[in-house]
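User: Run a structure prediction on this.
Assistant: Running it now.
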Amino acid sequence: MYFDNAATSFPKPDCVYDAVDAWMRGGAASAGRGTHQKAEAAGQMIDECRRQLATLLGVSAPSQIVFTLNCTDSLNTVLQGFLRHSDSVVATSLDHNSVLRPLEMLKQRLGIDVDVIPIDPVTGLIDEQSYLKALAGGKIRLVVLNHASNVTGRVQRIAELTHMAHEHGAAVLLDAAQTAGHWPLNMAELDVDFLAAAGHKGLLGPLGMGILCIRRGMEKELQPLRFGGTGTSSESLTQPETMPARFESGNLNLPGIAGLHAASKWILNQTVLKLKSQVHASTGQLLDELQRIDSVSILRPCHESDNCGIVSFNVDGMDCREVAMILDQSFDIQSRAGLHCAPLLHESLRTNTNHGTIRLSPGIFTTPEEASTVVDAIRQIAAQV
């Protein structure tokens, strides 16, 4: 049984497997690198995938969606392409190493200043007083916001935080790795400038797919990380200025896009609200049943209704990694244990002393019977302590 959907979703809808297989067997041509039928079909499929994602994510125009290697690549494109020497950045203790490590590198390389805002350990929300103080303390170029923690699942009040940032002249980068696909997400309504998402998590596409959505006009402020052939403006030795070619050098991952194309169409037909309800039901069941086990300590600094589908816990007296190993080897249940690449959050929640937590992340296909089986396995493990 698979309970590691926060890392990558599994299983995928059958249409995703079919689309990848069909593309590999019958359509594997390079888009923009020819005028023959297969190349034209590749371009049409890519365009349609962008249109579906623009509808799904509330992006102003499909051309403002850039395909990347993964969410980490999307985040790096903004962090390394937008920030300049001695710029000031606001981040938070919720951030994943996909944000923290590039920022640390830029501190050393460009001398940027990074102010990391703490969270309230009771609510799991960003401390707004500290946040406002940081915004008012200097000329902030960029604010990085985590839509939902990959440790607690707590969804943040992004629209309000973005409004505060814009009032102080800062651009906003939203890390939506844990929410895109199964949590209502509208870039225009949230008013963020950049939105980074993983194509292989809630969006149900294959691994090796990321998405970067850029507010119209902000691409002019963003330098590409890679330069090269785009299939457009081939007579010029300089990178195209047009979107999305400006950020898509080299051949795209067409099998991955084919899968994401099928997945995004499937999600639109199912509706995000329906998928959110399914994940929420499994999450609520896990939280409700786990809290009845005396030796289980649940990390839940939020109400179930504000949780994107993550349950983190520890078994008293046991290393979290040992519990995950037993779940895997004795019960064939896949979870994740450790710091989940979010070291500052574990420090804030004081779970770093136990090497982190065990994380269960149900998906849209998780059944009530599977959730009960996982809880029963944890109950058996806890009883042996």
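DSSP finds twelve helices and eleven strands in the chain.
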